[in-house]
C-alpha cells in the first residue's frame, strides 16, 4: 500500500531534505523511524527538496509498504523514533497513482526576515536578518514582476540540475508585521536557491541599491552573474503543496504568518 505523510522540521539540524552519505538528511531520519515502525526498509519521495538550514511547516512525502499498521502508528509510532526537531503531522493511505512530487500542482514557500539593528536571539536560526531599515513599497513593486511564466536563470544556482529554468510564479508577495518582513511565493516548481536569490535581490531593492525597474531588468537578462548574492537560508520555510481534491489529502498548507 502507499502512505502519504505531512512533515514539519527545523532545517538547522539537517543537511537538507535529501538522504546524505553521513545519514544527516531529513529523509534519512524519517526513513529510519518508519522502518522501526513497519519492520521493513522504505524509501520516501517528497514534494520538494529543501537545502541545509531550510525549514518545513508542511512537507509532503509518500512511501510504499507491504505491512499493515493503523494510520496512527505511522504518526505517533514514527514520531517516537524521531528527534524533537522533526515530526510527522498526519498519515493517509492514498491511491497507487499518487506521487508526492509528480501529483503536486504547486509548491509554496515563505521567507521570514527580521529587519532590526540587532540580530535576534530567540529566533536565531529560524529567521533571516538584515540590520538596516528596508523600504517595503519598492520591494513589493519589484516582487510583482515575478508573477507569471518566466525564465528564472537570473535567480538560479550555478549547480542547479533542473532541465529548464522556466517556471510559473502564481504568487509573490511581501507583507510587514512589525520588524518582520514575510515574503510569500507560490509556483508550479522552484529552481535550486531560487527563493534565496530572489530575496537577496529584493533586499537590495529595499536598501535602495537596486530600483524596481533594475530588478525587472535582472529577470529579463537571465544572467545569475549580474544578480546580488544568495541570502541566508535561516528564514526560509516550505509551507505547503497544492494537490487536486481527488487525492483527498488533509490540509497540506501551513503559513508562518
Automatic annotation (TrEMBL):
It catalyses: uridine(38/39/40) in tRNA = pseudouridine(38/39/40) in tRNA. It comes from the Bacteria. Transmembrane segments: none annotated. GO terms for molecular function: RNA binding; tRNA pseudouridine(38-40) synthase activity. It is an enzyme of class 5 (isomerase). Keywords: Isomerase, tRNA processing. The keyword Isomerase applies. Substrate binds at residue 109. GO terms for biological process: tRNA pseudouridine synthesis. The active site is at 51 (nucleophile). The keyword Isomerase applies. It holds the Pfam family PseudoU_synth_1. HAMAP family: TruA. Belongs to the tRNA pseudouridine synthase TruA family. Formation of pseudouridine at positions 38, 39 and 40 in the anticodon stem and loop of transfer RNAs. Homodimer. This is tRNA pseudouridine synthase A. It comes from Methylophilus medardicus.
Amino acid at each position: 500500500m502507499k502512505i502519504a505523510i505531512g512533515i514539519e522540521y527545523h532545517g538547522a539540524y539537517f543537511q537538507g531534505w535529501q538522504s546524505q552519505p553521513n545519514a544527516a538528511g531529513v529523509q534519512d531520519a524519517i526513513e529510519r523511524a518508519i522502518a522501526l515502525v513497519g519492520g521493513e526498509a522504505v524509501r520516501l519521495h517528497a514534494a520538494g527538496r529543501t537545502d541545509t538550514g531550510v525549514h518545513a511547516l508542511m512537507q509532503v512525502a509518500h512511501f510504499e509498504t507491504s505491512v499493515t499498521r493503523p494510520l496512527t502508528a505511522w504518526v505517533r509510532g514514527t514520531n517516537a523514533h524521531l528527534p524533537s526537531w522533526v515530526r510527522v503531522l498526519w498519515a493517509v493511505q492514498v491511491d497507487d497513482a499518487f506521487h508526492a512530487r509528480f501529483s503536486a500542482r504547486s509548491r509554496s514557500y515563505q521567507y521570514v526576515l527580521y529587519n532590526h539593528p540587532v540580530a535576534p536571539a530567540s529566533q536565531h536560526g529560524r529567521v533571516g536578518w538584515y540590520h538596516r531599515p528596508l523600504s517595503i513599497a519598492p520591494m513589493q513593486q519589484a516582487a510583482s514582476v515575478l508573477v507569471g511564466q518566466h525564465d528564472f536563470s537570473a535567480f538560479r544556482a550555478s549547480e542547479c540540475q533542473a532541465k529548464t529554468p522556466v517556471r510559473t510564479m502564481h504568487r509573490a508577495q511581501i507583507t510587514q508585521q512589525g520588524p518582520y518582513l514575510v515574503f510569500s511565493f507560490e509556483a508550479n516548481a522552484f529552481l535550486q536557491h531560487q527563493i534565496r536569490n530572489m530575496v537577496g535581490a529584493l533586499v537590495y531593492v529595499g536598501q535602495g541599491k537596486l530600483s524596481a525597474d533594475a530588478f525587472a531588468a535582472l529577470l529579463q537578462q537571465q544572467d545569475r552573474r549580474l544578480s546580488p548574492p544568495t541570502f541566508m537560508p535561516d528564514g526560509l520555510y516550505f509551507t505547503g503543496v497544492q494537490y487536486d481534491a481527488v487525492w483527498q489529502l488533509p490540509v497540506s498548507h501551513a503559513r508562518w504568518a
